[in-house]
């Protein structure tokens, strides 16, 4: 939608490119930083009522976005309202999944299946947007997405059930119970937060700028949307695959491999991608390897902190990594002052930051076990 909004609604200028990028940035920031509030909400009103509330916020934000006439309107509707709803839905589904699969050695696989739905949504949504934008315009595209998300999330609300009674969670009645700052003294958690921060910093850059890069190369907006769709589809497969692999070789081992290959795909493929076929190869590679963080996040936190401190650690990590959501905006700012060829800074930023994240994950692994080949 960023590409369509810039080109057909607000005007294709460098300033508007940066301002529009803040919409998605704000949405993801709100989604992360309000994780403790989402946990408290679930404790107060229960799992399904929280999911229903999140569903109304997500769909309401999209519907209102369809009437936006200024960029700041999108900050309120899509950035804040949609972001709050996404935060509630994400935290409730992730914690509920970990409750059901604490034992049995399949936690990463289960988490991978759940998070793969994000990739599946990314596969279907661009197709809807391309057809709707070309025939009905941006406003009705937002509205159609709002109704679509409402139906999908309503089904999810009906199906998701907590494993334990919420009476067991009533201690989480204030932010101090949900987010425990003393966990920051935990050295291994510090390293994992740094690794996660860098991973979040770069993971959304291709999703934001591949369509614009395709347009720059002279490709059609339809081809640009296909690139995002393929990236999302491969992310769906990649998140399930990394979950299965993580259960076999260890979460950190799988994360190191996938983060390294994701970074190398940006440096070695996207850097030299000046045609549609090569861009498609990059979309496949980055999509498959680039989203591993969201699959191994919860299982790895359980390894580092244990089950009792998992919820507090999860909230803390989401809050601490929330500033990294400005990754696409930082990349866009660097691009605006870069002397390199257009879009080269995006390619280098995405690849180098992913490899830095991989290095910190390797450090964490060696702290937990000196044997490089150990299953962790």
Strand element count: 0
N-to-C order of helices and strands: HHHHHHHHHHHHHHHHH
Helix vs. strand class: mainly alpha
Q: In this structure, how is the largest beta sheet organized?
A: none
Span of the ends, CA to CA: 39 Å
Number of DSSP helices? Answer: 17
The 3D shape can be described as: globular
C-alpha-based Rg, rounded: 20 Å
What percent of the residues sit in helical stretches (DSSP H or I)?
Answer: over 70%
Q: Could you tell me the mean pLDDT?
A: 85
Residue stretches low in confidence (pLDDT < 50, at least 5 long) are 166-171
The fraction of residues assigned to DSSP E strands is under 5%
Please, could you describe this protein's structure?
With 376 residues, the protein is an all-alpha fold. Helices cover 79% and strands 0% of the residues. The protein has helices spanning 2-10, 14-33, 35-45, 47-65, 71-100, 107-135, 138-159, 175-178, 187-203, 205-216, 221-249, 251-268, 276-290, 293-305, 310-321, 327-337, 344-368. It is globular, with a radius of gyration of 20 Å. The model is unreliable at 166-171 (pLDDT under 50).
Structural features:
single chain, 17 helices, mainly alpha, globular, 376 residues
What's the helix and strand layout?
Layout: H1 2-10, H2 14-33, H3 35-45, H4 47-65, H5 71-100, H6 107-135, H7 138-159, H8 175-178, H9 187-203, H10 205-216, H11 221-249, H12 251-268, H13 276-290, H14 293-305, H15 310-321, H16 327-337, H17 344-368
